[in-house]
Amino acid sequence: MVLTACGRERPVANAPESGGSGDGGPTSGGENGAPALATTGDIPVGGGKILAQQGVVITQPTAGEFKGFDPICTHQGCPVSNVDGGTINCTCHNSSFSITDGSVQSGPATRPLAEKQLRISGENISLA
């Protein structure tokens, strides 16, 4: 058996194809044919929702402000686990990131989550 400890950070390529806490969200098309990932009502103010299969975390830091982030922790590539208390959390090594800008709130991660551009069309949220 081989065990590895937290080590150097390494770049992370893509989000996993499956898993996570999202149910897939709405499928009706957004602007420019982009499928809707969620509706504005699906995302709690001061919180967010992880859509791992779609490769995005959507947050709503303040009412009507929606942000998108990569769902993979920049520390060692674990998928983030939950959005709670104003942070996006990775329980692999207890890193947390701001729901407002993806910045590191607590380590061992030292790099922010990559931002993803969202498009809001009516109540539908899709990737831009």
In short:
The protein has 128 residues and is mainly beta. It has no helices and 11 strands. Strands 2-3-4-9 form a 4-stranded antiparallel sheet, with no helix packed on it. Strands 5-6-7-8 form a 4-stranded antiparallel sheet, with no helix packed on it.
Describe what you observe in this structure.
The protein has a four-stranded antiparallel β-sheet with strand order 2-3-4-9, with no helix packed on it. It is mainly beta. A hairpin with a 4-residue loop joins strand 6 (87-90) and strand 7 (95-98). The chain has strands at 38-39, 47-51, 56-60, 67-69, 82-84, 87-90, 95-98, 104-106, 115-116, 118-121, 124-127. The termini are far apart.
Largest sheet: 4 strands, antiparallel
Structural class: mainly beta
Count of strand segments: 11
Amount of beta strand: 25-35%
Going across the major beta sheet, what is the strand order? 2-3-4-9
Instruction: Give the helices and strands as they follow along the chain.
Output: EEEEEEEEEEE
Count of helix runs: 0
Give Rg in angstroms: 15 Å
Shape: globular
| Mean pLDDT metric | 81
Which residues sit in consecutive blocks of at least 5 with pLDDT less than 50? 1-25
Our measurement of the CA-to-CA distance between the termini, rounded to an integer number of angstroms, reads 44 Å
Provide the helix percentage.
under 10%
